[in-house]
Amino acid sequence: MKKISILGSTGSIGTQTLDIVAHNPERYKVVGLSAGSNVDLLLRQAKQFKPSIVSLATKQDAEAAKLHLPAGTRVVYGEEGLIEVAAETDADTVVTAIVGSRGLPATLAAIDAGKTIGLANKETLVTAGHIVTERAKQRKVSILPIDSEHSAIFQCLNGESRQAIKQITLTASGGSFRDRTREELEGVTVAEALNHPNWSMGAKITIDSATMVNKGLEVIEAKWLFDVTYDQIEVLIHPESIIHSYVEFADHSIIAQLGLPDMRVPIQYALTYPDRYPTPTGRLRLADIGKLHFREMDFDRYPCLRLAFECGRAGQSAPAVFNAANEVAVARFLNGEITFLDIERVLETVVSRHEAADMLDLNMIEEVDSWARRLAQTV
Ligand code: NAD
Ligand code: MG
Questions:
Q1: Which fold, 2-145?
Q2: Which protein residues are within 6 Å of ligand 1, measured from CB?
Q3: Closest CA to 64 of 75, 78, 73, 52
Q4: How far is ligand 1, taken at its centre, from the CA of residue 292, in Å?
Q5: Domain locations in the chain?
Q6: 186 CA distance to ligand 2 centroid (A)?
Q7: Which of 10, 48, 179, 355 is at 20 to 30 A from 192, Cα to Cα?
Q8: Cα(73) to centroid of ligand 2, in Å?
Q9: What is the CATH number of domain 315-379?
Q10: What is residue 45's predicted lDDT score, i.e. its pLDDT?
């Protein structure tokens, strides 16, 4: 039986991970759950799955939850609580499903504790890819991708030699505004931006899909996960989200991974790799779909993707700055403080004022991350 802890159990990835567990109670045991402020849902999850530890963002919420937890479940809180859930249980696998670079310390703690990482929290790899991958290598810990594109690439690479990779193609649905011109993006609302055509996801990644920042983060994530160069990574618009990504090899053979857009497939694969089991998901029938469509990526339409490539290539602290500025810009857009197009303006301004520092350690990353956040609040 596989023991798992979930960081961010009340979110989109967290709840879908628990759905997989609920369908296969004989295969998994949940030992730790952590959430931000959704106390009610965390309590319901704790009653159903009876973990040994849960964590909430604040002391106040943790104290309120304490009274209603099942016997045998301990509650902790804050950054330290999150780290406890990540590292101080007997979990085999930690699913990192919280949003943003705040997931970094807990992810590193889980790696240090020798846990396999089911990685959804891509911002940690963007912010500190060199540290996370190096640490995982040292500790002989696997980082198994949950992001659908990266799970696809990971599956395509099964049994293949990394030296034989010619190109990795990440597919992109195009997000909520894929059929609009740039002029038509003026004045779009938060509700419109949150209406993704193919996937139901948390608010931040849904906005990131509309700006194409999500694909930018995924390009950087792919660089670290698969140890390829930026020249080997391409992005292709594929509105149906059926081909989740593909790899072209040296002999020009292409291997792709296909399926209905349902995150429970890549989530389960990260939990059961290298084995496969049935999932409670629908089956893809290509005859029902009939046609699949593809469009060249238009970097003028999606300038944030170009910026992500530039930051990735610049390396050092640039990806951390890009990510932190984006986290703030998206929060400001969701709060109604700035417009949709302001997100890219904020990103461009913050990135252009940053002088890439050779980032060797976590303290410097933290510094650069805070600097970018402060600036992104004011521009
Ligand atoms: P979400 O907003 O739905 O969920 C976020 C979770 O983090 C919630 O459980 C929330 O309570 C928790 N959280 C927030 N603040 C916290 C704190 N201080 N301490 C502990 N927990 C806290 O987000 P999501 O869509 O599930 O995305 C999670 C991650 O997975 C992101 O990095 C995203 O990019 C990635 N991802 C998501 C999808 C998807 O389909 N949703 C697909 C691929 C990758
Ligand atoms: Mg993805």
A1: Rossmann fold (3.40.50)
A2: 8-14, 34-36, 38, 57, 82, 97-99, 120-123, 147, 199, 201-202, 205, 263
A3: 75
A4: 30
A5: 2-145, 150-260+282-307, 315-379
A6: 26
A7: 10
A8: 33
A9: 1.10.1740.10
A10: 98
pLDDT at 199: 85
Residues 102 and 366: their CA atoms lie apart, in Å, by 10
**Burial, 336: exposed, middle or buried (Cβ in 10 Å; 0-12, 13-18, 19+)?**
exposed
Please list the rounded mean pLDDT of every run of 10 residues in the chain (379 residues). 98 98 96 98 98 98 97 97 97 98 97 98 97 98 98 98 97 94 94 90 96 98 98 98 98 98 98 97 97 97 98 95 98 97 98 86 95 97
What is the per-residue pLDDT for 125?
98
